[in-house]
Amino acid sequence: MKMPAPNSAILSRAADIARELRRIVPGEGVVTDPDAKRAFETDGLTAYRQVPLVVVLPETAEQVSAILKYCQNNDIPVVPRGSGTSLSGGAIPLEDGVLLSMTKFNRVLDIDFPNRTATVQPGVTNLAITKAVSDKGFYYAPDPSSQIACSIGGNVAENSGGVHCLKYGLTANNLLGVEMVLMTGEIIRLGGKHLDSEGYDLLGLLTGSEGLLAVVTEVTVRILQSPETARAVLFGFETSEAGGACVAAIIAAGIIPGGMEMMDRPAIHATEAFCNAGYPLDVEALLIVELDGPQGEVDYLIAEVEAIAKHCGAVYIRISQNEAERQLFWLGRKAAFPAVGRLAPDYLCMDGTIPRKQLPFVLSRMKEMSAFYGLEVANVFHAGDGNLHPLILYDGNVPGEFERAESFGADILKLCVQVGGVLTGEHGVGIEKRDLMGEMFNEDDLNHQQRVKCAFDAKHLLNPGKVFPVLHRCAELGRLHVHKGRLPHPELPRF
Known about the structure:
The radius of gyration is 24 Å and the shape is globular. The protein contains 18 helices and 20 strands. With 495 residues, the chain is α+β, with helices and mostly antiparallel strands.
């Protein structure tokens, strides 16, 4: 994986750039010490790292505006960064770029219970939003496994999901408005507390744009009232394929659980040893299904999914009897990623999405790939919406293992596309999947996406080197194709 070669002219101006940034952000807001900058050299995709040219930590939207305007005028790349939990390398810095850390934007600005909204700064963690409203019986629905650490600004950038996104949607479905700063320094607002915005859906365009279009400085989200009842059920199966078939059968029956997650044997054993959630150790696949709503509805749906699971061959069934037990079931799932970290020195956390009906086939193919590459894989995923998170185990100290792990991961993602899925469900493209974009999009597709980038960032200074495998200049994308001396559509007047 290669990042853009650093611009020597920018490197030679490092001291001048830091001095100008200190005029904008005084005090300790600019970091130039080599050791201090290493804290920002990577994100959740720790296999790759680069030390940034300089780190700046603004505290106001006006400071962000001034920073971006200065960088725009001086052709300096900028990489926005939230909590640095990105698993696709989206926040990895550039050697010749400014790393714009938004961690000081950490205040809850407004809680509006009548309108069921919360307005916060982008550095507020996902879980902190729920904590801010839970005393009134409300919560914020999207709940990534990293919710204790990941920032809401990063969630907007990656369109993050979580275990409850099956029923309540991803970030895009719960985002109402943002304040954002363009690369030119212009501060604009999209949406607000109202449910529908006028005009083009620019808010939808921004969500999931991975820091390539603008820097978010304020976020307004929808908060929901906690359900009257929520209960979780554990189903154990003798094969992962049987568990995958059960997932498809539940959705086919018209039942949309609050959450539906699945783990295979390696993940089950690692998680149980890590947090003692009470998971069965004699099954090959474990399915967690949560039903929520009025008490009568939940009781009825539990009986329905239990019957479906038995029909699909469930050999273990356990229904939570109280809130503490329900939370314990989810504790194991939320702790799965760190738990699997005990199985090997390193692992790659992949992220691809497939049609639910393809779960049995894809899980079977992954077993074959595991044998081919000689690397173990633990599967933890959002089964309800087909969002896979294979964890490929390897040892980075063994020559060639990291390269095999990358190839294994690439084959999994290619398989996702081949069966009708997509390269990413919630982690984003970043640098991890950048060179695989051609598996899903042709050149025309990618060029049209880059035209959107040009509309927001004509100089391609925001987060360059991410998402697009080959980045064209805006002027190149706008050229007319002249064939044998003839312009396209010669009958149209041109001025």
